[in-house]
Recover the amino acids of this structure.
């Protein structure tokens, strides 16, 4: 028996794996999900309204003696934040940061390419990233799992905005400016070349 | 509240997200007529709000400079006095916000930013925005030998003369382009 899950904003395969108690890879490899896999290509970015077929949970029996302690380790319970910080196109290197997710605080420094990397819970929804830059501290309210696929218009818009192009005013104008900057033909339209360059610049 | 959408990445996937801050530098300074080195307003408390969340706070130094790091293309700069907001400026990233410094309108925009008033014409009553035609900056003699008194022309010309005096240039007889570009920062 399988179950159909209608994807809500904020869902991804990792959070669904935790929700249903099934390794996300098993859901991703479920034959009924081949079309979804082909469409989205990336288990960490789904779109609200997608349907995911959730397979049955494997139940295994383990025998053990009473009055003894038995240790079990759950696999793959973490996801990652992998966020590159830039300022006018320059990497923000070696900047101290604190990532706060609920009661959990992760501290560190961005690496030599401006990457902030941290383990986060598979079902983390919100976080606050505090980054110390030359002029003081910047606070970034993050929402995990809310990135839309690049194949959608909202996904294109999100990536442009985060790259510093003001797509909230005019998507076509933001696309034109981006195309001009990266040396693409300036059309103001979403096409495969645009998506490819956006993925290179944005990372996903 | 505006938040930044990011993905929960599969460990080891190599995929990432990017936030590219746009750096906007705004200098707060006293009215024209004072030397450039003493014009900055120091000790000005400010904060940057991203639709409901204060993302940056600070106090200006001697140069009066606020360096905003804007993560999503727009934010509001707020000036504070004793913890209360006393001024708000909506700052939006726009590649084409300023006309060329070679054009009269671009010169007007920069002069206006530097505190040289352009009278009150146009959509925003700033003497610059939304005017049908940019003024020339020169009062023109017309057939009857009277000086043209178009208010925008007079305002523009006056601001150029004031600017030239303030930078120690010969009024009415020297190019303002380079000093204007330098002082406006664009």
């Amino acid at each position: 028996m399988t179950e159909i899950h209608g994807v809500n904003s904020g869902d991804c395969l990792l959070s669904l794996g935790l929700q249903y108690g099934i390794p996300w890879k098993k859901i991703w490899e479920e034959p009924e999900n081949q079309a979804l896999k082909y469409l989205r290509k990336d288990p960490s970015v789904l779109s609200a309204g997608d349907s995911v077929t959730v397979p049955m949970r494997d139940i295994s029996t383990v025998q053990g003696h009473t009055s003894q302690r038995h240790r079990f380790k759950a696999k793959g319970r973490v996801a990652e934040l992998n966020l590159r910080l830039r300022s006018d196109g320059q990497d923000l290197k070696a900047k101290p940061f604190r990532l706060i997710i609920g009661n959990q605080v992760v501290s560190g420094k961005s690496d030599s390419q401006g990457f902030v990397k941290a383990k986060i819970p598979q079902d983390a929804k919100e976080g606050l990233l505090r980054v110390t830059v030359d002029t003081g501290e910047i606070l970034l309210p993050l929402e995990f799992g809310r990135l839309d696929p690049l194949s959608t218009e909202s996904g294109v818009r999100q990536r442009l905005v985060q790259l510093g192009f003001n797509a909230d005013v005019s998507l076509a104008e933001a696309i034109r400016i981006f195309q001009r900057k990266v040396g693409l033909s300036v059309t103001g339209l979403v096409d495969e070349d645009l998506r490819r360059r956006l993925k290179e610049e944005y990372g996903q | 509240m505006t938040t930044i959408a990011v993905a929960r990445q599969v460990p080891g996937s190599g995929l990432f997200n990017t936030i590219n801050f746009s750096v906007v530098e705004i200098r707060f300074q006293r009215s024209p007529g004072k030397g450039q080195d003493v014009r900055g307003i120091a000790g000005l408390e400010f904060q940057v709000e991203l639709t409901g969340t204060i993302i940056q706070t600070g106090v200006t130094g001697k140069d009066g400079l606020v360096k905003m790091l804007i993560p999503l293309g727009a934010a509001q700069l707020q000036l504070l006095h004793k913890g209360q907001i006393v001024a708000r400026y909506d700052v939006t990233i726009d590649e084409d916000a300023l006309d060329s410094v070679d054009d009269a309108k671009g010169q007007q925009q920069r002069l206006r930013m530097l505190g040289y008033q352009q009278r009150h014409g146009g959509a925003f009553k700033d003497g610059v925005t939304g005017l049908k035609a940019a003024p020339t900056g020169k009062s023109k003699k017309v057939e009857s030998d009277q000086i043209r008194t178009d208010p925008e022309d007079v305002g523009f010309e006056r601001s150029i003369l004031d600017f030239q005096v303030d930078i120690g240039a010969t009024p009415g007889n020297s190019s303002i382009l380079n000093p204007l570009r330098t002082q406006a920062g664009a």
About this structure: Chain B touches chain A through 39 residues (CB under 8 Å).
